[in-house]
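To close the section, here is one more complete example, presented without commentary so you can practise reading it yourself. The ligand is heme C.
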Amino acid sequence: MTIRIALPVLLVALALPAHADNYSLPKNAAFEEECASCHMAYPPQMLDANSWRAVMNGLSKHFGSDASIDEKRRIAITDFLVAHSGGRKTGDTRDAQGKPLLRITETARFDKKHREIAAATWQRASIKSPANCTACHAQAAAGDYNERSIRIPK
Ligand code: HEC
Ligand code: HEC
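Output:
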């Protein structure tokens, strides 16, 4: 039973092009204005809807910063992020207790893609934090994480 349902899904997944990793940034003025000043605009596709709702419900205590914005904008940006949030590829972005993760850098998918990077590398002065995507992905702000554009700074 399980196999009969799962097999067509698997075949569709295998038929997708190898460069299906498209994180191009959908246009949204409010998101770019409010969410790309302290760091780059993270791709909405990298967290699931529950995670974005949780991020957007906690802006006054946002990773040690106060990132609060007016309520109308907060709702509009939440709707935008939820509409473009990750699907099957991104997976469920919750922790083991079922709480939505607030960080892309804590998701299983991020972990899997960055397994080869040593802990000491993340701490280099030129990098500082795994959340500093642009340190290594020169074109990250444009949603391009292609291997060809990766350069790990010394
Ligand atoms: C006042 C500065 C500021 C603003 C404005 C801001 N952030 Fe952040 N954000 C931070 C800081 C600081 C971090 C933690 C960065 C780190 O760990 O290196 C962060 C981290 C994040 C992360 C987690 C990154 C990771 O580790 O995967 C997400 C997601 C995020 N912000 C989303 C948003 C969204 C959405 C908005 C707009 C509503 C926003 N941020 C606006 C300061 C800000
Ligand atoms: C220390 C440098 C570094 C930082 C910082 C970094 N990455 Fe990466 N990332 C890499 C490397 C290296 C790879 C390629 C791994 C491989 O191909 O084995 C990679 C791979 C990826 C891939 C897969 C690309 C593909 O074609 O399969 C994605 C998506 C990605 N990173 C997203 C991010 C995001 C989002 C951030 C920030 C939240 C980030 N990375 C931060 C170094 C980094």
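Once you have examined the tokens, check your reading against these statements. The two ends are 52 Å apart (CA to CA). Residues 9-20 have pLDDT under 50 and may be disordered.
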